[in-house]
Design goal:
1081 residues, alpha/beta, Rossmann fold, Dna Ligase, domain 1, 7-stranded mixed sheet, 39 strands, 36% helix, CPSase_lsu_oligo
């Protein structure tokens, strides 16, 4: 190593958002470990309190501060780092780095940018410089122009010819991009694009071309390797983050592969990349013609996938190279006995598949294209494309059994004509449409013509479909020949999939499909038709290797490892795919559990399949199974490992859903009994337990006919909370405010029957929501943390703004919460982590729900309290006797605020309103000496800005207007110009506050609110709905949507708006303290 740098600043990526998610926790954590190994003092700025990289043992100093110029410069002034890493925090970190350079901060403080030089980063990010540089190198790029105005866009589009693609510069995940077929399309997209960047790119649309990616690593000695190449299943036009991605590429000729590899390496050398970069190509399907789409001079989503797909620790190696090492000087950290200067060889196929949660959003378009909408992704490993793909589809956890889905009714897809139209315009249901097309007899050629998906992939899908047809030929599953059953398993069919083929036949004798699934499993095992464990050794088994990186496949004849079977191993089930409601916070829980298992002298074993996570990193556990979290696969691994037991309480809802099935199979579940978990998960059993314990809960009933529904509603009165009983996690939940809305819901939304009843719950207005996170041992609470929501109940707990320690709760309320929690813990004999959500109104406390697992707030309360609750919980789960620890949050002199990150800008047409169904994609947590300070830092960390001048207020119901009155007076005193819709304008006038009246969207007069938004005349919009009924939300939907589309901060909750206004009026930026986490004690 040639560099002598002893102190390095690393910029994180902030809250998880669509386009910039958990992959940067993985890459940042690896980078920090690499620097620590060199004895370098590390300083991390990242407000994402749920991440692994912000844990105590990773960085030397952590600042939970916004990733903006003001705060980064303040940390630089205080810490005086010698070097800075920009490549490990996504686009957020890269943009901050470019700003630091352009503002002269890097030069002023004599900071060395480690890794790729800043000018190379700018050359890759600025589309004009990028295109010019590649043109000078005689490398083809898409025909394009750079625009800075609407006139530019119109002129250039006419020169290129429609269709075209428009992109914003310096953005991630295709934000601000879209396809235009005509001038009208163009104008709509360009207006939005300019709200995210001052520079746009107008580019030819290479319809039907393949998208190919290469991950390139280069050192400062000019050693250069291609670590992985990947091929998109979908053609150009669908963002790589929205596409199925396959590694290694499957349809390239040898010549195509090596030509593109040569070009990627040539680009990396000429851009002077030091570390890692990603090069994306468009490749003509009819010739070897190509275009370079973009170069990411940093670790990316694709880098994380490539690293997990190959076993090559890209981020770790890139961090070492940024310090001056050469590739030849580094060892392969996975195999331990080869050099890092090699290109991995793969003897398996990897599929990355995105997951969407579009049903969570009212009004959103389900079309997929050039802008990312997916919230998570899975990675499956198999011996063939078919096996890998089917495993990956199941990993999405959306009810699909693989490519073949007998369990899903596809009649909703309509006629063959409508089906073909859907294939032409891709949506999040793309895989189901492809399956249906084969069922309908649409030819491979026609499917290719409609979708532009390479025929090779379509033929593999047809292989799966033909195998299903052969199985379907038999009346009884026992008639399936062994060779056909082996073929099906090699093509990724699960036992449940095969069971479904027979369960849905007319002559089926089984009442419960899981019984049939288990019979098939036992029959298979008798025939020795079983999966074998393979190692990922990065060398395609060419050299002996000692890796802990494993997958199961039917394309093998023996296990690659020898099992001890000494009951000294502990299996932890991971969180699976990130989705709204389950994200990086559960990965933090899993990683901390694995660390504790190791400390307690057990072998730590992880089952997970998410390439974005730290828990699937090569050095986190003793054995990693990159595998499905299905009953079939988890049982396969447990039978091989014969562990001391299995931990199900760290990974969120997926492991929780497996508990009782595993228990029925005699699997030893560590921690709280599966019987107790079942009692809490079952609504009736839990409600009866609360009645027995004389603990209050909102009134509720499960009803199956209109008469009893109206009778119960009359009893509890409006508003009410309604949802189908068969839907989990807040999906399809609605707050209904009046009889007309209820009638509309019952007639339009759902069908009700004794088989599918409706759950109606009393909705308590203006109630405070409070949470308790705790760890118990044998029913006795050892440690607890109580936090309160800023918003009243009615906003999902995952979207709410959380304050810890609580600062606005009566002592008597706190005591009652602790009393109730102790009763619940004792009754269910809890051993491990749990979470209870409470309602409090007029000093009366009621229980909403209880989860006998770690919750999403565990990282937040653990880090604010400086007490690792997961470490304690894991020790308890392992049977270690622990003493009770009394929390000290009543005497603390600081507090933390957790704020939610929303990604509505990515979700075209979605209504950005908060309600009972969760919609946030990430979170931050910031610390402060006061509530105002912590809240303001948190709000700035999720993208809010302090308004400069003009604020629009649409105050909603009278109770909200009254709630906001004092802070609106404060805004007026501070000199802000207030705009208000008609009712709010009248209310403010009556209270002596001047405001400019603006007209509603449907009134065509001067000062129409939408014109003000389009012309960017507003700095903050407060829009409070009167209630959450459809008719009310529709009234001012346009205001909220325009605010998001034109990138203007929007608040839709009166209590949060009040808190934010108080914070930025009471504190200037200079008053916000620049303190590291360890300085808050």
């Amino acid at each position: 190593m040639s560099m002598k740098i002893d102190k390095v600043l690393i910029l994180g990526s902030g809250a998880l958002k669509i386009g910039e998610a958990g992959e940067f926790d993985y890459s940042g954590t690896q980078a920090l470990k690499a620097l620590k190994e060199e004895g370098i003092y590390t300083i991390l700025i990242n407000p994402n309190i749920a991440t692994v990289q912000t844990s105590k043992e990773i960085a030397d100093k952590v600042y939970f501060l916004p990733l903006t110029l003001f705060f980064i410069v303040s940390v630089i002034e205080k810490e005086k780092p010698k070097g800075i890493l920009l490549s490990f925090g996504g686009q957020t970190a890269l943009n901050c780095g470019i700003q630091l350079f352009k503002e002269g901060i890097i030069e002023k403080y004599k900071i060395k940018i480690l890794g790729t030089p800043i000018k190379s980063i700018i050359n890759s990010e600025d589309r004009n410089l990028f295109r010019n540089k590649l043109t000078k190198l005689n490398i083809k790029t898409a025909k394009s122009f750079i625009g800075h105005s609407m006139d530019d866009a119109v002129s250039y589009s006419l020169e290129i010819g429609f269709p075209i693609i428009i992109r914003s510069a310096y953005t991630l995940g295709g934000l601000g991009s879209g396809f235009a077929k005509n001038i009208n399309d163009l104008k709509k997209i360009v207006k939005k694009a300019f709200s995210y960047s001052s520079q746009i790119i107008i580019e030819e649309y290479l319809e039907g071309w393949k998208e190919i990616e290469y991950e390139i690593v280069r050192d400062n000695f000019d050693n250069c390797i291609a670590v992985c190449n990947m091929e998109n299943f979908d053609p150009i036009g669908i963002h790589t983050g929205e596409s199925i991605v396959v590694a290694p590429s499957q349809t390239l000729t040898n010549s195509e592969y090596y030509n593109l590899r040569k070009l990627a390496i040539y680009i990396a050398r000429n851009f002077n990349i030091i570390g890692e970069c990603n090069v994306q190509f468009a490749l003509s399907p009819n010739s070897e013609d190509y275009r370079v789409i973009e170069v990411n001079a940093r670790l990316s989503r694709s880098s994380a996938l490539a690293s997990k797909a190959t076993g090559y620790p890209l981020a770790f190696v890139a961090a070492k190279l940024s310090l001056g090492y050469g590739l030849h000087e580094l060892k392969n950290y996975v195999t331990k006995n080869t050099s890092a200067f090699f290109e991995p060889a793969l003897d398996y196929v990897v599929c990355k598949i995105p997951r969407w949660d579009l049903k969570k959003f009212y009004g959103v378009s389900n079309k997929i294209g050039s802008s990312m909408k997916s919230v998570g992704e899975v990675m499956a490993i198999g011996g063939s494309f078919e096996e890998s793909l089917q495993k990956g589809i199941r990993m999405l956890d959306i009810g699909m059994q693989g490519f073949i889905n007998i369990n899903i009714n596809k009649k909703k897809f309509g006629s063959t004509r409508l089906l073909k139209e859907s294939l032409k315009k891709p949506t999040d249901q793309r895989i189901l449409f492809l399956e249906k097309a084969l069922e309908e007899g649409v030819s491979i050629k026609e499917i290719h013509d409609l979708t532009k998906i390479d025929p090779w992939f379509l033929y593999q899908l047809d292989n799966i479909f033909q195998t299903k047809k052969k199985i379907d030929h038999f009346d009884n599953w026992r008639e399936i020949p062994d060779e056909l059953l082996i073929k099906a398993k090699k093509e990724g069919f699960s036992d449940m999939q095969i069971a479904s083929i027979f369960f849905y036949k007319k002559n089926n004798q089984y009442n419960i499909i899981s019984h049939l699934e288990q019979e098939i499993r036992e029959y298979r095992k008798e025939k020795n038709i079983i999966p074998y464990v393979r190692q990922i050794d990065t060398l395609a088994s060419e050299y002996p290797a000692f890796t802990n990186y494993l997958y199961l496949t039917y394309h093998a004849i023996q296990h690659d490892i020898i099992y001890e079977k000494d009951e000294k191993s502990v299996i932890t089930l991971g969180s699976g795919v990130y989705r709204i409601g389950s994200s990086v916070e559960f990965d933090w829980c899993c990683v901390n559990a694995l660390n504790t298992i190791k400390k307690e002298s057990y072998r730590s074993i992880m089952i997970n399949y998410n390439p974005e996570t730290v828990s699937t990193d090569f050095d986190v556990c003793d054995r990693l199974y990159f595998e499905e979290l299905t009953l079939e696969r988890v049982l396969d691994i447990i039978e091989l490992e014969e562990p001391k037991g299995t931990i199900v309480s760290m990974g969120g809802q997926i492991p929780n859903n497996l508990v009782f099935k595993l228990y029925e199979k005699k699997v030893k579940i560590l921690g709280t009994s599966p019987i107790s978990i079942d009692k809490v998960e079952n609504r009736y059993k839990f409600s009866n337990a609360m009645d027995y314990l004389k603990i209050g809960q909102p009134r509720w009933k499960e009803l199956s006919d209109f008469d009893t529904i109206y009778k119960f509603v009359k009893e509890v009165d409006f508003p009410i909370l309604v949802r189908p009983s068969y839907v989990l996690s807040g999906a399809d939940m609605n707050v209904i405010s009046n009889k007309e809305e209820l009638q509309h819901y019952l007639s339009e939304k759902i069908s009700i029957s004794p088989e599918y009843p409706l759950v109606i719950t009393e909705f308590i207005r203006n109630a405070k929501e409070i949470e308790l996170d705790a760890v118990s041992q044998s029913g006795k609470i050892l440690y607890y943390a109580i936090s309160e929501h800023v918003e009243f109940a009615g906003v999902h707990s995952g979207d709410a703004t959380l304050v810890y320690p609580p600062h606005n709760i009566y002592l008597s309320t706190l005591k009652e919460i602790i009393r109730i929690s102790k009763k619940i813990s004792k009754y269910f004999n809890i051993s491990g982590p749990f979470n209870i959500q409470f309602l409090s109104k007029d000093n009366e406390v009621k229980v909403i729900e209880c989860n006998l697992r770690a919750s999403r707030s565990f990282p937040f309360v653990s880090k604010v309290s400086h007490f690792n609750m997961i470490e304690l919980a894991t020790q308890v789960i392992l049977g270690k006797k622990k003493n009770q620890i009394e929390p000290n949050f009543f005497i603390t002199n600081f507090l933390g605020v957790k704020a939610s990150q929303f990604s509505f800008s990515r979700l075209q047409d979605a209504d950005p309103i908060l309600g009972v169904d969760m919609s946030s994609t990430g979170e931050v947590g910031c610390l402060g000496n006061t509530f105002d300070e912590a809240l303001l830092k948190s709000m700035l960390s999720v993208g809010y800005t302090i308004p400069k001048k003009n604020i629009l207020i649409s105050g909603g119901p009278i109770v909200s207007k009254l709630d906001l009155l004092e802070v609106v007076k404060l805004l007026h005193r501070k000199g802000y110009i207030l705009f208000a819709t008609e009712g709010t304008n009248h209310f403010l006038s009556n209270n002596g506050i001047p405001s400019i009246r603006v007209h509603w969207p449907n009134v065509k007069k001067y000062s129409n609110v939408l014109e003000l938004i389009q012309n960017r005349k507003l700095d903050l919009i407060i829009n409070i709905p009167k209630n959450l009924s459809k008719s009310e939300l529709d009234n001012d939907y346009a205001i909220r949507r325009y605010a998001v589309d034109f990138n203007i901060p929007l608040l839709t909750n009166a209590r949060l708006a009040k808190a934010f206004i108080q914070a930025f009026c009471n504190l200037s930026m200079d008053q916000l303290l620049i303190k590291a986490w360890n300085e808050y004690i």
